[in-house]
């Protein structure tokens, strides 16, 4: 009797408002992947989410991140992590791998992507998303960019769709593109049958839409939804949707397009999020729908150094079954609340909001660290005593090879990167230190070297002709083998510091032009990276430089 009464009492307490008060919620903070994490693609497998992004000519390529709650992400591997799979030697940093897409079917994970200058479109597979991933299988018939796979569970058929040329390769205007599709043999990893054009130009060809790209198909309530980016990946970026009762079309556009954009909002709004598009839909842990997409956080106008980042927003379905994210009447929010439990990842580095951590080099390299174009294991070593020790290779970051460089993304507008350097230069050509790097022609290098036989710390700016412009210099004590180096980012400016002991920082030069490192000035599609870098500037050398750690902290006002 007492047991029945207790059960009834518990049931009563868990009804109505009392039940709602016990429901768990999670605050999703934008961006969910801060810094240079563009062109996101996501797949849900059971209760697990896997996210990938473009990496262009950085190596390893295409990070794989895992989450249980769409908020807390842990990098578990990289799709292209072996030089024999692919390397990007001779390619500019903003080339390489464009817009990957991840999917899952019957125990196998698939990633499709475009190597823009060499291999074209390809597919790789894995049984475990952490890897190993297969060697790339080329898809030569798929002419274009941004391929994605769609598996139709109702017919057990697969399809590959992608951005391609205008009809008959005759564009009516600049940016005139199409979405095309093949049936796909998922077992033998090849296309089947004939290509068919699904979309010409975009939502409305008469309005000359540009760059219909990043396409995906999903099925819901017997409708096939084809959704894609439109407008180009800048301030006019958007996401549009069309649908059909047949996977091959015809696809009819939604009258309420675009379903995501920020292009019509006031330019002077506080902490703007702009350039939103390149979206993918996913069902959340609460059974509701969400969209992940790329956007940027400029510090002024269209100036930003953090690259295109990964954001999230709720997706709703209209009464007539069209998806809607944010039409552009209001700004994308820096946070949304989901009705599900937060699940933190063990040993995961923070990726959103303000945070700080130190990367040590006594074990294996963090999978998020980046090389230029390939990985040369003979050029560096790791140890508890010395940290990361790099050979001084002749290659420089002004060239398109593989210099001694290991970098970490700049993830905040306002942030700091610091290292401890153990290095003695034998000549003025030998330099090692900390670089803030946008591309081969846009970087600042805070380096220890020698000038007229005396040790110095110098600040260099890149130039178009691969030479370095000296901006500032300070002497270093002759017996000071170790120095501390720090770069502070403050939106449109960078400050550079040096110290011979902890917490004794001396300003070398402040208010250095940060817009020089922006995508607006440099062009391309990548974001800034703090790099540990050692070079002998074209000369042979047997010298080495050791970096004790890489310490990073970010402190943006929108997260306070």
Characterization of this structure:
The protein has 560 residues and is mainly beta. It has three helices and 39 strands. The strands form nine sheets. Strands 25, 27, 28, 30, 35, 36, 37 and 39 form an eight-stranded antiparallel beta sheet that branches. A six-stranded antiparallel beta sheet has the order 29-38-31-32-33-34, with no helix packed on it. A hairpin with a 2-residue loop joins strand 35 (482-490) and strand 36. The radius of gyration is 25 Å and the shape is globular. It starts with a helix and ends in a 6-residue tail after the last strand. The model is unreliable at 1-22 (pLDDT under 50).
Briefly summarize what is shown.
With 560 residues, this protein is mainly beta. It contains three helices and 39 strands. The strands form nine sheets. Strands 25, 27, 28, 30, 35, 36, 37 and 39 form an eight-stranded antiparallel sheet that branches. It has a six-stranded antiparallel sheet with strand order 29-38-31-32-33-34, with no helix packed on it. Strands 15, 16, 17, 18 and 19 form a five-stranded antiparallel sheet that branches.
Describe the SSE topology.
Layout (H helix, E strand, L loop, with lengths): L1 H12 L2 H7 L3 E4 L11 E5 L2 E5 L5 E2 L1 E7 L6 E7 L16 E9 L2 E8 L4 E7 L10 E2 L6 E8 L4 E8 L13 E8 L4 E11 L12 E8 L2 E8 L7 E7 L7 E2 L6 E2 L12 E10 L5 E8 L12 E9 L5 E2 L10 E4 L16 E6 L10 E2 L7 E4 L3 E5 L12 E6 L4 E9 L8 E9 L2 E10 L2 E9 L5 E8 L6 E9 L2 E7 L6 E8 L5 H4 L6 E7 L8 E11 L6
